[in-house]
């Protein structure tokens, strides 16, 4: 039996087709396993931005702060600070968090919003009043961008004065995302625009739709009115004071005075109208003809008139 099986296997092997042998290709010069691993770029600019607020922040200003945190991948959050604490405490918090820039939001009287932009190490710091705040959830614009993408910073040509140039440099160092940041994306798909109008900075955030310059607004949008520039971080000598700045209390006081003057003018006009009016109004003398007395009030000869009327009937 073993010899018969061996013969059958030899016949089957002869009947099978012989495969065609192809010429061997030369091996590649560099194999995939030998290729060097592509290393990520070095994260040289290790700056971080501390974003925090004071207690008692309104819902609108809190949403604005959350929008800024989402737009800045190099930001670090921090719980709210007590109002009674000195602003210099923020410098210690930033040093613990390894942050060299800071965005500090605060509100007063539930309607006035302020923003501190500070360089922690050596200063300077700028205090802004935030006006016309509109958050991303409120606007519901058609624009959109990926979280962590790096923004382009676009400034108006009017940032020429020394104080505006200092504010511009501080905004670039704070809001610009460092290259090769671990939490950032390696591309640009939105742009921050800073326009100088009426001595105020108008902030807008746009999505880059097309390379031809087509944009779509994302939000948020707000206006920064600079109040003062200080030499140090959250204090120090005043480098520049805005002469055109009007505090909210003064603005509301002028509005109340204008309303008060409106009431005073009305009362004064009413008094003049009373003075121009004569003491006694002179009517038509012929109206006395149709004035008659009742029979009960008639006396003397006037009674004879009513008696005659009765007899005639």
TrEMBL record:
Pfam families: Brix (PF04427). Signal peptide: none annotated. Residues 29-38 have a biased composition (Basic and acidic residues). InterPro entries: Brix, BRX1. One of its GO terms (cellular component) is nucleolus. GO terms for molecular function: rRNA binding. Keywords: Nucleus, Ribosome biogenesis. SMART domains: Brix. GO terms for biological process: ribosomal large subunit assembly; rRNA processing. It is found in: Nucleus, Nucleolus. Residues 1-39, 283-313 are annotated as: Disordered. Its main location: nucleus. Residues 47-235 form the Brix domain. Belongs to the BRX1 family. Required for biogenesis of the 60S ribosomal subunit. This is Ribosome biogenesis protein BRX1 homolog. It comes from Petrolisthes cinctipes (Flat porcelain crab).
